[in-house]
Amino acid sequence: MQDNSNTQKEIPLVTLPTTEQGRGNPCQPVENMQHQERYRIALEAAGMVTWEWNLLTHEVFLSANVVEVLGLPSTATITSSQEFFNCIHPDDRQRVIQALEVAAAEKSEYSAEYRVLIRDGSLRWVQHLGRVSINSEGTAAYISGVMMDISARKQREEQRDRFFAVGADLLAIANFDGYFTWVSPSWENTFGWTAKELTVQPWLSFVHPEDREKTRKAGQQLGAGNEVVAFENRYRCKDGSYRWLSWRRQPLVEEKSIYSTAIDVTAQKLAEAARKESEERFRLMAERAPVMIWMTDPTGYCTYLSQSWYNFTGQSESEGLGLGWIDAVHPEDRATVKNVFLEATKHREAFHLDYRLQRDDGEYRFCIDSASPCFGANEQFLGYIGSVIDITERKHAQAAAEKHRRLLKAVTDNASVALFIMDEQQQCVFMNPAAEQMTGFALAEVQGRALHDIIHHTRPDGSHYPLEECPIDRAFPENNQEQGEEVFVHKDGNFYHVSYTASPIRDAGEIRGTIIEVRDITEEKQAEARFRLMADSIPQLAWMANPDGWIFWYNQRWYDYTGTTPQQMEGWGWQSVHAPDELPKVKARWQHSIATGEPFDLEFPLRGADGEFRWFLTRVNPMKDAQGNVVLWFGTNTDVTHQRQLAQERAALLETERAAREQAEKANRVRDEFLAVLSHELRSPLNPIIGWVKLLKSGRLNPEKTAQAIDIIERNAKLQVDLIADLLDVSRILQGKLSLNVSTVSLPDTISAAIETVRLAAQAKSIKIDTAVDTTVEQVVGDAARLQQIVWNLLSNAVKFTPKGGRVEIRLSCVGADAQITVSDTGKGIRPDFLPYIFEYFRQEDASTTRQYGGLGLGLAIVKQLVELHGGTVQATSQGEDKGATFIVTLPLIKPHSQIHAASTTSKQVTNLSGISVLVVDDERDSRELIAFALELFGATVSAVASAREALQALHSSTPDVLVSDIGMPDMDGYQLLRQVRTWTSNSNHRQIVAIALTAYAGEFDQRQALAAGFQMHIAKPVEPEALATAVAQLVQSR
Fold it and tell me: Quick one: pLDDT at residue 736?
């Protein structure tokens, strides 16, 4: 055993009475029994378990405290050696059995330490001591002794072993007062302090001031019960310097000591600091570099990407590292990039490739990637370091340059003027096809030679033309542009006149050569000779002037128009035929052209011989010599009076057209907005309809959800029906074809029915509907359904535009000879600037209203038309946005003694079609099956066919009571079918079949056409099953 100071103590071995010694013998002396019992109690009080193993019977006896001390099962559970051995850890079991067998064989004392498995599944260390008892025959009969829990001691030993197994250079033991009680000799070697100097001062005084707080916190962690605490700090040397130590400290409470080990990590700290500094320098360089930097390990796994990579690609660090960077490469380039990268890695070679890389905005950019392998000590391959540069602009520049080159070549090849390019030695390096055609020489014949020596060496009189006198050649040495006219020699020896422009080619301030543009003006020279003859024949007024503006010649038309003579017009005499208010402007502009040599172009009036002014377009062009000096001005005056009149008329027409276009564009915008909203309103209900239908078809909805789905489908289908009904109403209204079923109508009943229609919608938004209906109001004359439509429209709008928790009020009162219906709400209100347009078709305040509340902007327009058809008025008022709105409808009351029958009402009853046969014809399968199924539900006998031809065949088998037919069918439509049915019944003496046109063609025209074709009734799709059944029943009864 060990005491509190970890000193090994001896314990007595107890041999319990064996059977041969009187175990259980009733004759055993009472004193001996009492002595043994007292001894057992003492051992149990000391936390020891007594045990005994019968080597002959293999029975095991344990004291009752085995459960409390060792956590083993009760003595009732462990009765044999095998049961006892099963409690020992499998790794220790064989060793314990062998030790027991050796003790029994040698009849010696037994001692072992091992682990046992206790009831909760954990382990405990046990020290097991015993002695062999010999029977009278000299045979080992028992091994008996004690067992005790040594788990705590084992744990301390393991801690200490682990602690001192660190292999530290510096060992120390400290007390809890903050002083070292012992230090190893290496402390003096490392720090220069003697052991005495280190133990007489608190060890914290040697710690660097900046590290003392974290050192104190480490000590507090020991006090908090931590077994081992590791930390680092700086420790002061005797020379005043500091060294870094890595500490491990473990408290031994029993010894009231702290075991400490320390390793001098100064070199590592310096190396780490140097490494961090190097890495920081590299990082700063990589982050500031105008390129993307990357690094890999030897396996090709990317271990570093500079921030510029993440900024460029938009990848995060987790997305880019490893092999994730390849995701940013264009899919078409990935295979090539991978192959190049893998091949280079295989041979440890540098590589260079172009590919496209996706930028964070989704655009793919051309990049160039260059990388080199990195090698460490002993030529160990460490991976690659590379850089990526965006060369998109370079690529674009190259492409642009190539495009420019091709364009330049196309321009020069297709240019109508001759182009020559000379180098610094004034030798020809280029001529375009036009130059080859003009000179008769091919480029190969003149390339590398002086152009003057080939086409400009001889004057027309046959004399030699020296290069030194050539003005074209002066453009290069004098760095000036030269222009003029010359005479060239063709390859065939003929001379021809040309005008030329020779310009130096400058590059970064250096003259690189000359470009010469040459135009053959031979024909122009010939034309000049014919000019004067032609000038008198042209329809314009024409004249010529000297360089200073002195006019010396007019053509005959000038004199004819102005009624003047040459003497009157000479010089500046032309001013006399100009309008006084226009003359200053004309003179200023003419003087500007004379001073600058710029052409003159102006419109102004000239007085004719009849004294009337007409407008002329005057254009004056200078004729210049080779030096660019004006030698002559040639001007024409063209009568543009008629054109100006046409222009004014055209401007008026353009203004009219512009206004019409604006009106058309406005109409187009309204149409486009309407079509967009119409598309939205038609599509929106389709989404829940299609979605819930698919869910119903899946068969995975419970009854509650199935009912909900059917309600949603029905509600959205009715939305589309209402929408189409509104569109048809608008169509009828615009065509003036909306008819009313006139009767006397009770407005209180109408209002009550409309309220019931919107009540659920109001309850869904917690909107309270207040009513103030005067039930004494007289009846009005009108269409009951349309009047209810008016009230319902106003109420539904009020509910739609009122927020949750709001209030809607409807009042009915009598105002003079009119009934007045007032609907007001606390909703979003109406902007004052929109109030005048509130009842227009397709008008809503803005697009956001459509997006938020839906609708086509037809409801209020329909309300206004219906109210006016009833002889009433409707108006809207609002204090502005978020202040609610009020709509007031007035309707004339019935005049006394009016003879108008009240609209009859029929209580709703279930229609019975038993005994009625119906033939259904529809090419749409879903529609056909629905109609047939609905009529069968009401008791009808139904035959359903998909075409008019099948219907005619079915008539030969049996004659139905009612024909329900679609109109728009292929091959033969519903009208053609009915005509053949009527012919068949007439020829075969069958009774006439009543017919219903059930069609999606729902317009007023379609209804009239169906009735005219012989159908007894026209019903628009979609139709409620009850309504269709009622229609069938009514037709059969009427027949």
Answer: 60
